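Hey, sorry to bother you again with one of my protein questions. A protein chain has come my way and I'm curious about its shape. I'm sending you its amino acid sequence along with the backbone structure tokens. I owe you a coffee for this, so here goes:
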Amino acid sequence: MCDSLVSEKNQLVKTSTTYQACLKEAESALDQSNAEVDSLTSRLAGLQGDRNCLITNGLV
């Protein structure tokens, strides 16, 4: 009985460790995606400003 409980506990620890590693990978990927979104949003704002300038002033 005790051996089976210890075995079950060890299996749960392994499973938990695996899930924690997967969670860290997912969080890292999410952080990278958020950084890319921020960068693209910043570039878009600049391009929109350029577009508005071209619409307002035309090409010189």
Q: What stands out?
A: The helical segments are 2-57. The chain has one helix and no strands. The two ends are 86 Å apart (CA to CA).
